[in-house]
Amino acid sequence: MKDININDFKVSEDIDIHNTKTVVDLEASEKDLKKKLKQTRRALGELQDTLYAHGKYAVLVCLQGMDTAGKDSLIREVFKDFNARGVMVHSFKTPTALEKRHDYLWRHYIALPERGKFGVFNRTHYENVLVTRVHPEYILGENIPHIKSLEDIDEAFWNKRFEEINNFEKTIVQNGTIIFKFFLNLTKEEQKHRQLRRLDKPTKNWKFDPGDLDERELWGEYQKYYEIAINKTSKENAPWYIVPSDSKKAARVIVAEIMLQELQKYNDIKEPVLPEEMYAKIDEYRERLMKE
Fold it and tell me: pTM for this one?
């Protein structure tokens, strides 16, 4: 199997989304991909145990992509070998009445993982510069001062949001959160195939929403705003990774490998050692237990 170079997927300069890959040849069979994912997620699970014991870093994994991009199945497969207490998944839907009474980042802030744990955002704070940009009328429901009509939602408004998002991520990174941002990139044709599968396979019918077809008609708008959002917010402390996702199995391996390779760079993530006075008494503690 071909080695995965994370720099092939990392956004380090402005991208043209139409020139980004949706398919990558890892020179591996499906069996090889399955075996590689199993190895990588096991290593990630062991690393998470150490991260938990260390207790000084949190990891935030942000997943974005068009409908059917494979976010749910990726979460299921990549985090399968994690201690269930060590990973929390949040799927952000339409904001509730309570959430709308706060700023748009509030519900994401309170869902952040604590130190020692992984947090996965299935759809993220970036919905606030993606869905709301395609449907700016949603902004009016946020009751923001000075935003009284669609005419008030201008380019300066969006640039301010990008600045706020960058500041949000900068703050949590400076306080010990390691951020991974993945855009699962698939073609419109592959999305059509997956939506038809939801209709044709009874066990997948529940996933189908007629509203998804309406959003599909806005494919070009979403692609444009994804490109803008990625270019505005891919920073060294919180870079975007564009993951070719026409193959779900390959996408899972790429995401898992990126996380493992990046986290292994943190040489200070180690299991804590016992204080010298406790370590010196290990034999004594063992003897007490053996005498019971």
Answer: 0.94
